[in-house]
Each structure stands twice: as C-alpha cells, then as structure tokens.
Amino acid sequence: MATNVECTVTLDVQGSNTSRTAPSNATSTIKSGQNSFPSTIAKFINASGEFGLTKWYCNTRNLGAGANESLDLAGGLTDESGATLTFTGVKLIVIAIETASVNGTNKLTVGNGTNPFNGPLSSTGTIDVFYALPLIHPGATGWAVTAATGDILKISNPGASALNYTILIGGN
Questions:
Q1: Residue range 102-128: average pLDDT?
Q2: How far apart, in Å, are the Cα atoms of 80 and each of 51, 83, 87, 151?
Q3: 108/65 Cα distance (integer angstroms)
Q4: Which tens digits make up the pLDDT trace of 139-158?
Q5: What are the DSSP calls for 126-160, one per residue?
Q6: Can you give the C-alpha Rg of the chain in angstroms?
Q7: Nearest to residue 51, comparing CAs of 82, 5, 88, 105?
Q8: Cα(100)–Cα(112) distance, rounded to whole angstroms?
Q9: pLDDT, tens digit, for every residue of 25-58?
Q10: Lowest-confidence range among 20-24, 110-114, 168-172?
Q11: N or C: lower Cβ tally within 10 Å for the chain?
C-alpha cells in the first residue's frame, strides 16, 4: 500500500507585556515570525531526507494512575491501516495531555525505559510533560532507532488519576 505523508507543525508565540511604572507605560510584544521571535514552522514532506517523513504513528491513549507503557518504535506500533511500523529514525514527537491540570498534578514522564530510545534524551534521562511537548529533529536521519537495544519510548503516569494523551511519532 502506497502512502503519502505530510505534516506541518507550527508553534505560534504571541504576547504582550505592559509596564505601568512612572513616568511612562512601556509595552513589549512577542509575535512569531517577526523580529521579536523566530517563525517556528516545521513542514515535513513525503521523503526520506531533511524535513522528510515516510511514516507516522498517531493515537490517543489512556494510561492508568501510577502506570507506564513502553512504545516499541521498531515493530510494536501500527499505522491507521494496521501496517506494522518499524522506525529507523524519528524526526517528530508531539505529546499532548487531554486532561492537563494547571497545578501540575497531571503529568507524564517520558524516557528512561529498558532498551530506551534516547532521541533527545540521554539513556537515563526523562522529561516531564505537563500539557504538551513538541520535539522536532528535521535532519536527514533524525534521532536513531536501534531495534532491540534502543527502540523503547517509555511513557509513565506518576499521578493518582488516569490520563488520556495523544502522541504523534513521525520518521522514516
């Protein structure tokens, strides 16, 4: 089955800060794509080189309180048509918690699994996701996935409540 994969990831940053101190009011603004903040758009096309994807996995998952799961990037995931996905490189990981909390009690911890996919982390490193996390590597090969020894993306829920989250993993 032939597939055509395209994906655009945009991080839009906008804001203003007004100082109300005498003798004048000063306002600074931030807007993506202008002098105050760079444009952060990653457009991936159906290819294997830079900014290229040939496959992706996207799914909404439920993770129980205190539970963890190991996503096998080299043969343990399937695409929307049921085909097994075996990544050799990952260029895009986006995780979004559907039941995020403002006080940080709902979070996911990513990384530090057995036979870990290190990607942007060290072999024992973790990163906490409180709301959303985009990780992008537009290079020709992305972060390497090594079957059987470096292919497990561990997702943990250290909290006392179950969480729904959506994950997108794209690469070659």
A1: 87
A2: 22, 8, 15, 20
A3: 10
A4: 999 999 999 999 999 999 99
A5: EEEESSEEEEE--SSS-EE-BTTTB-EEEEE--SS
A6: 19
A7: 5
A8: 22
A9: 667 788 888 777 888 889 999 999 999 999 999 9
A10: 20-24
A11: N
Would you state the pLDDT for residue 23?
60
Please report the pLDDT score of residue 32 as a whole number.
Answer: 82
Q: What is the DSSP string of 52-96?
A: EESEEEEEEEEE-TT-EEEEETEEEEE-TTSPEEE-SEEEEEEEE
Could you check whether the bond before residue 23 is cis, i.e. omega within 30 degrees of 0? yes
Comparing C-alpha atoms, which of 153, 157, 142 is closest to residue 113?
A: 153
Six token digits for residue 106 = 């709902």
Q: How far is CA 45 from the centre of its chain?
A: 18
The two structure tokens encoding residue 93: 């990981």
Give the C-alpha distances (Å, rounded to integers) separating 19 from 31, 35, 66, 93, 148: 18, 20, 44, 37, 55
